[in-house]
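User: Sequence in, structure out. Go.
Assistant: Echoing your sequence, followed by the structure tokens.
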Amino acid sequence: MHTLHLRDLIAPDAPPVRVMAAYHTSANRHDHDFFEMVYVTDGFCLQDAAGSVSLLMEGDLFILKPGVSHKYMGNRVTHIYNCVFQLDALGESLSEL
């Protein structure tokens, strides 16, 4: 299993948050050392997160915690936006959640 690191996605002098558009049919099992908020904008796929399989469809929004092993499975292109961040990026706003 591959572990993704936030330091590889965000430049040292950049804000500690990054939003990325992604288009995929499937993604191999992986985890990461950051939070990932995902919004599905088009299509559908299955997600296996920590052994629980869910159907993801347009309009779905979810958050994965660091260390959660997951993968996407599908045979159609699914369009998503990923917002990746460390918890400290929320600063004082965290107490408002």
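User: And one key feature?
Assistant: The beta strands are 2-4, 17-24, 27-32, 35-42, 44-49, 52-57, 61-64, 70-73, 78-85.
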